[in-house]
Write a structure and sequence with these properties.
six-stranded mixed beta sheet; 204 residues; 30% strand; alpha/beta; globular
Length: 204
């Protein structure tokens, strides 16, 4: 069974998830304070995976890469957002985070191995270009960034946002997962696919 811990950091209460396995340790997203959290745990970090390129999710990424000497990975469409320090300022949003370079890129695929864990990777843009979800079929867990929340969906008013694209991606890729799948979002409490399919008003 997949063992993970949750950290909540920054003014937006952004969730990060630390997955520890015999094959290595993975951190999903890096909100403010996550670098100090990892250090306080005394955990060796092998890989930092970023679900998407909004600053509240990669604020500590460059710091973690330096201090933990781990690899960093995200989708190619997130490169402009996470490597250009002025990306958001040039578009009228006063959001910033230290840029971080990827060591490798992750694409949508039915199966990829991350530190020995098989994940199905879903590319679900609309909230943000390059938004990725990571699904463990064995453990029925979905780490979905800001795609789907308990009773809500990701906002689409930031650069590259597209509400129709997001809803279509959720319906075609996320809601096709088993009802029992636990959804671990980038903000707020966990939920399940079945709960959101039945009761999420944004998806009716």
């Amino acid at each position: 069974m997949l063992h993970f811990q949750t950290f909540i950091g920054g003014i937006f209460d952004t969730n990060a998830y630390l997955i520890q396995t015999t094959g290595g340790n993975i951190l999903i997203d890096a909100p403010p304070g996550s670098s100090e959290w990892i250090r306080s745990l005394g955990v060796r970090l092998d890989l930092l995976v970023l679900t998407h390129g909004h600053p509240d999710h990669f604020d500590d990424a460059a710091r973690i890469k330096r201090t933990c000497r781990c690899q960093v990975a995200f989708h190619k469409d997130g490169i402009p957002l996470m490597t250009d320090p002025d990306f958001f300022k040039k578009r009228g949003f006063f959001l910033e985070a230290e840029p971080v370079q990827p060591d490798f890129l992750i694409e949508e695929t039915l199966k990829t191995d991350l530190c020995g864990i098989p994940f199905r990777v879903l590319h679900v843009p609309g909230h943000c270009p390059g938004s990725l979800c990571f699904y463990s079929a064995e453990d029925q867990l979905l780490f979905d960034g800001d795609v789907l929340f308990a009773g809500s969906v990701g906002r689409t008013d930031f650069p590259g946002g597209d509400h129709s694209l997001l809803i279509r991606g959720i319906r075609e890729k996320v809601l096709t997962l088993p009802d029992e799948t636990t959804v671990l979002p980038g903000h707020g409490p966990q939920t399940t696919i079945g709960e959101e399919r039945r009761h999420n008003t944004f998806l009716q």
